[in-house]
């Protein structure tokens, strides 16, 4: 999450989670414009905010070689095409693929940490409490690391 990036590409899980907990606006406040793919927009199933830019992957052949969910594959393929980007991926297989390709990525919990670090939110714990009311899953170790990095 420390590398420089010119755009932020979000996957479906991030949109679904933030929509469920009423925190979608965090993405806009933190990043301004967020980019996603047409596949992810379809997976989301509802209209995305106007500040979400929808792109179509040009190299669908590369996208099809990734043995992961179509939305994550499209996000990774788009990141490869664009270059300097930050991917928001929560799925383990997608994150491993991004890591193998040396892409810059974070997860939804990392977005909350970035929002606290930027002074957008005062604490992560209240948001985590809302996340715990959903079906979104993370390990206790990841949660503890995020809270520790946030000083909570």
How do the strands and helices of this protein lay out in sequence?
Layout: E1 7-10, H1 12-20, H2 25-31, E2 34-37, H3 38-44, E3 52-55, H4 60-65, H5 70-82, E4 85-88, H6 92-100, E5 104-106, H7 108-117, H8 125-131, H9 140-149
Parallel strand pairs: 1-4, 2-3, 4-5
Helix pairs in contact: 1-3
Residue share in β-strands: 5-15%
The separation of the N and C termini measures 19 Å
Q: What is the count of helical runs?
A: 9
Strand order of the largest sheet: 1-4-5
Could you name the ranges where pLDDT drops below 50 across 5 or more consecutive residues?
Answer: none
CATH architecture of the domain at 7-108: 3-Layer(aba) Sandwich
What is the number of strand segments? 5
The helix/strand class is alpha/beta
Radius of gyration equals 15 Å
Order of helices and strands: EHHEHEHHEHEHHH
Helix content: 40-55%
Kindly report the average pLDDT value. 92
How does the overall form come out from the CA principal axes? Answer: globular
CATH class of the domain at 7-108: Alpha Beta
Task: State the fourth-level CATH superfamily of the domain at 7-108.
Answer: 5'-nuclease
Largest sheet, strands/sense/barrel: 3 strands, parallel
């Amino acid at each position: 999450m420390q590398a420089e990036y010119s755009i932020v590409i979000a996957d479906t899980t991030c949109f679904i989670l933030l929509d469920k907990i009423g925190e979608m606006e965090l993405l806009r406040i933190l990043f301004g414009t967020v980019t996603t793919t047409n596949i992810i927009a379809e997976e989301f199933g509802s209209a995305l905010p106007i500040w979400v830019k929808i792109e179509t992957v040009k190299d669908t052949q590369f996208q099809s070689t990734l043995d992961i969910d179509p939305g994550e594959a499209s996000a990774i393929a788009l990141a490869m095409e664009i270059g300097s980007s930050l991917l928001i991926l929560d799925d383990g297989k997608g994150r491993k693929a991004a890591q193998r390709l040396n892409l810059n990525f974070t997860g939804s919990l990392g977005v909350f940490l970035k929002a606290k670090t930027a002074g957008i939110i005062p604490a992560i714990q209240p948001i985590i409490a809302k996340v715990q009311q959903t079906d979104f899953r993370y390990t206790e170790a990841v949660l503890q690391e995020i809270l520790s990095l946030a000083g909570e």
